[in-house]
Amino acid sequence: MALDTSKISKLGFGCMRFEGRADDTIDIAQVSEMVDRYLEAGGNYFDTAWAYPNSEKALGQALVARHPRESFFITSKCIAWNHCESTDDLEKQLQETLANLGVDYLDVYLMHNLGGKRTAGFEKYNTWEFMKSVKERGLAKHIGFSAHCTPEELEQFISDYPETEIVQLQINYLDWDSPSFRERECVEVANAHGLPIIAMEPVKGGLLAEPSPAVRAILDEALPNDSYATAALRFTASVPGVFCTLSGMSAIEMVEDNCRAFADFKPLSADERAAIERAQELMAESGTIQCTGCDYCAKVCPQGIGISGSLTALNYLINFGDPYKANYQLGFVVRFNSGKVMPTECIRCGACEEACPQNIPIMECFDRIDEEIVPFSKPTVLMKP
Asked: What predicted TM-score, i.e. pTM, was given to this entire model?
């Protein structure tokens, strides 16, 4: 039976960004409150993955153990481009996912993060045949894949995996017409094949929630009743073929804001879309680093560098032009807040760039940090929150 998208809420709860995810200190009480508020507002779709640190366990406690199974949909995902050396590892991931969540089946199971060099792992371990077996065994009702890919790759995936029922694609206004991401074209490919789309990264890992002052001025005038995150969510949810837009939520305030945006959802008007287009142009000209904070780069870094935090500091410099505050951000986000290693310790192995789904030239960014941020340190302030 095909996935009935009409039963799935337009706003999906992305579970990658729970606070404390990296060190197993997720506040279950807080996540439970977030889950309850989302469900009360009419939401019912939760997206997690085996590769998201501690996410499945937290969701099992905050959602599955506390609410009737028929009241929500759960999607999880498997990977073959890391932590996988055989088809047995794929089965192990699945069984861990089911146990962590405390469920007998998944509503949707996806191959996670196809595209570029990551695709080879899925092919090597014949992952699609495994996915079909998962559905045949009743352990997942529907199967598909998520991808950060070119339109040509997407076309090939759909051809290679004809039983695909759903695709999950990155869609946000920053990347919509970007020659690096070609999101509009990917959406057109999915629509041409009649595949329903789950949209991920609508706020670009939080980047679009805190745009530059120039972008804020445009959005404040055209969308005065929307937060910057809401404006980004509305753009993505207005895209044809998108039936659910994921928002990675980590605080009750985010849940409240997102639920308000979808309580009486209205697609962008012509004037609002024009304002978003002006914001797109400004952000493209500024050279904002398009990191989403997924931290797949950090998983393969032999030095333990806080890569996403380093790029956050660089974006602070780009957006606000203050190298001293950017240096403070670098020390606070990377060293103080996460206990990671600073980018000055990079050994130039390139593993991070191969793992990055956004194709960011990370080592070039480190060069900029060395030249434009590191020299502007204020030691008496740097280590303090």
From this structure: 0.81
Across 67-92, average pLDDT:
94
Alpha carbon 201 to chain centroid, angstroms: 4
Q: What is the DSSP string of 144-172?
A: EEEE---HHHHHHHHHH-TT--EEEEE--
Multiple choice CATH, 5-284, 3.40.50.720, 3.20.20.100, 3.60.20.10, 1.10.260.40: 3.20.20.100
pLDDT digits (tens, 9 = 90+) for 292-313: 888 889 889 999 999 988 998 8
Beta-strand ranges (E) seen in 192-307 are: 197-200, 242-248
Pairing of strands 106-114, 242-248: unpaired
Per-residue pLDDT, averaged over 205-213, amounts to 84
Tokens 């990675």 -> residue: 248
Beta partners for 23?
none
Helix (H) or strand (E) holding 235: helix 228-237
Q: Which residues of 75-99 are buried (b: 16+ CB within 10 A; e: fewer)?
A: bbbbbbbeebeebeebeebbeebbe
Element (H, E) at 214: helix 213-222
Residue-range domain boundaries for the chain: 5-284, 296-382
What element of type H or E holds 11? Answer: strand 11-14
Query: Quick check: 208 pLDDT over 50?
Result: yes
Q: What pLDDT is recorded for position 319?
A: 75
pLDDT band, very low/low/confident/very high, at 381 (cuts 50, 70, 90)? very low
